[in-house]
């Protein structure tokens, strides 16, 4: 099958050139279409040996030599240029949430309530699962790029503590190099990782300028939810 064959980009470029095509122009036109709301996602791999790691999920590729998942270790550093509280309530067997929200406001066609704080399903321990979607600017691949990181319910307390500390220190969240560290947890027979948060100095001028531009560019992204926001382990479990 074609998907399992080795595709060499240099050979493709040469073939296109002989036929009169410009590969860079063709890639640029495709990039405009597919990357409008597509940002690489950073996820957490929960391992049974408690050596949990962040990994970069680049998504599927036809190039079999391209790494779709890149191990980033248990510590991640970047600048948060936007963040949002999101929620979703799942029904077993469904591919989309029964109800979902951004910053407490439902975004689905048939919300269960006008606002999350008025909904019986938003109580702690209910089947409506809260997360924080973080837009992170980081130098993971040799250049400053945006990534998405989702904090699970077990890590939300660390984010709240982080915000309180920043507020007391009179520091905007974008002004700091934020450090995410996976803390191994063993509880009730389960081993998983919680994400602790701290800072490592302040953002430099170059990073702040890029972060400002990205916040503007991804304003539309922040108004919608996709399947990518809810595919971590446990997201769609309704119990």
Structural commentary:
The protein is an alpha+beta fold and 239 residues long. The protein has two domains: 1-34, no CATH class; 40-230, no CATH class. Helix content is 20%, strand content 33%. The chain has four helices and ten strands. It has helices at 9-18, 23-34, 156-168, 205-217; strands at residues 41-45, 53-57, 69-73, 75-89, 99-102, 105-106, 128-138, 145-151, 176-187, 190-202. Strands 1, 2, 3, 4, 5, 6, 7, 8, 9 and 10 form a ten-stranded mixed beta sheet that branches. The longest helix has 13 residues, at 156-168. It is globular, with a radius of gyration of 20 Å.
Distance between the ends: 40 Å
* Major β-sheet annotation: 10 strands, mixed
Count of DSSP strands: 10
Proportion of beta-strand residues: 25-35%
Mean pLDDT: 83
What is the element string, with H for helices and E for strands? HHEEEEEEEEHEEH
Helicity level, as a percent range? 10-25%
Number of structural units classed as domains: 2
Uncertain parts: none
Shape: globular
Radius of gyration of CA atoms, rounded to a whole number: 20 Å
Number of helices: 4
Structural class of the helices, strands and pairings?
A: alpha+beta
Q: What's the structural blueprint in terms of helices and strands?
A:
Blueprint: H1 9-18, H2 23-34, E1 41-45, E2 53-57, E3 69-73, E4 75-89, E5 99-102, E6 105-106, E7 128-138, E8 145-151, H3 156-168, E9 176-187, E10 190-202, H4 205-217
Parallel strand pairs: 1-8
Antiparallel strand pairs: 1-2, 2-3, 4-5, 4-7, 4-9, 5-6, 7-8, 9-10
């Amino acid at each position: 099958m074609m998907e399992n064959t080795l595709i060499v980009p240099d050979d493709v470029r040469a073939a296109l050139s002989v036929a009169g095509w410009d590969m860079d122009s063709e890639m640029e036109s495709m990039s405009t279409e597919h990357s409008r709301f597509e940002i690489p996602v950073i996820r957490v791999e929960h391992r049974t040996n408690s050596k949990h790691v962040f990994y970069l999920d680049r998504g599927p590729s036809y190039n079999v030599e391209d790494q779709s998942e890149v191990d980033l270790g248990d510590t991640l550093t970047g600048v948060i240029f936007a963040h949002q509280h999101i929620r979703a309530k799942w029904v077993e067997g469904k591919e989309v949430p029964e109800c979902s929200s951004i910053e407490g406001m439902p975004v689905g066609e048939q919300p269960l309530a006008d606002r999350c704080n008025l909904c019986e399903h938003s109580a702690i321990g209910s089947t409506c699962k809260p997360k924080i979607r973080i837009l992170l600017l980081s130098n993971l691949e040799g250049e400053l790029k945006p990534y998405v990181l989702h904090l699970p319910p077990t890590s939300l307390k660390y984010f709240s503590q982080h915000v309180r500390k920043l507020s007391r220190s009179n520091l905007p969240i974008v002004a700091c190099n934020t450090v995410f560290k996976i803390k191994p947890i063993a509880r009730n027979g389960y081993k998983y990782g919680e994400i602790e948060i701290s800072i490592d100095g302040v953002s430099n001028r170059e990073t702040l300028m890029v972060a400002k531009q990205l916040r503007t560019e991804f304003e539309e992204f922040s108004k919608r939810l996709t399947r990518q926001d809810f595919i971590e382990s446990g997201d769609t479990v309704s119990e």
